[in-house]
Design brief:
Length: 166
C-alpha cells in the first residue's frame, strides 16, 4: 500500500521528537493514501514553519503489519463515530490525564491508528463538546455527510519497521 506524507522537507528517517503533540491520534508520524491531501499538508506545513519547500514523501506500507500480533492497531471506520470523536478530543486535549482510557493514544498504547482526519472545521465542532455546547452524538450527526480524508498515524519504532521510503 502506498502512503504519502506532506512536509517541508524530505523525510529519510522518522524522528518522533519532531512530531507535533496533541494531534488527532496523538503524537506520531502521519500519512495518507490520498496524494492531494499530502500535497495540501506539505504546503500548509511549509507556510507554518516558514522554512523549506513543500515535499510529498512517498512510502510503502508492508501490509503484513495487519497480521503481526505484536502490533497494536486501532482502526476507525471511514464514517465518523462517537468513539472516533472522543478519541480525537482526548488526544487533542492538553489537560487530558486518563491514560488508562482506551479512547486516547497520548501514551502511544497503539502502534498504528487509522481513521478519518479531523480538519479544522471538525475540530471546531468537537471543541463545542468540551465547552458543553453540543454532545458528541450531535457533532457526529452533523458530520454524516461530510467528505473525509484518511490518515495513518505511526506511533512506535515497531510500527515504523513496516514503512519504507519509495
Amino acid at each position: 500500500m502506498i502512503l504519502y506524507h506532506g512536509s517541508n522537507t524530505k523525510v529519510d528517517k522518522v524522528d518522533f521528537s519532531k512530531c507535533r503533540k496533541y494531534k488527532d491520534f496523538g503524537q506520531g508520524f502521519y500519512c495518507t493514501t490520498i496524494q492531494k491531501q499530502a500535497e495540501f499538508m506539505a504546503i500548509r506545513t511549509t507556510k507554518r514553519m516558514k522554512i523549506g519547500m513543500p515535499v510529498v514523501n512517498v512510502f510503502e506500507l508492508d501490509e503484513s503489519i495487519f497480521q503481526d500480533k505484536n502490533i497494536r492497531i486501532k482502526k476507525f471506520s471511514n464514517i465518523p463515530s462517537e468513539e472516533w470523536a472522543r478519541f480525537i478530543l482526548n488526544n487533542r486535549d492538553i489537560s487530558f490525564k486518563n491514560m488508562d482510557s482506551l479512547e486516547c493514544n497520548v501514551d502511544n498504547k497503539y502502534d498504528l491508528v487509522i481513521g478519518p482526519v479531523a480538519d479544522d472545521d471538525i475540530v471546531a465542532l468537537l471543541w463545542q463538546v468540551k465547552d458543553s455546547l453540543s454532545t458528541v452524538s450531535e457533532i457526529v450527526d452533523k458530520l454524516k455527510y461530510k467528505e473525509l480524508t484518511d490518515q495513518y498515524s505511526f506511533h512506535t519504532e515497531k510500527a515504523l519497521k513496516y514503512l519504507k521510503g519509495v
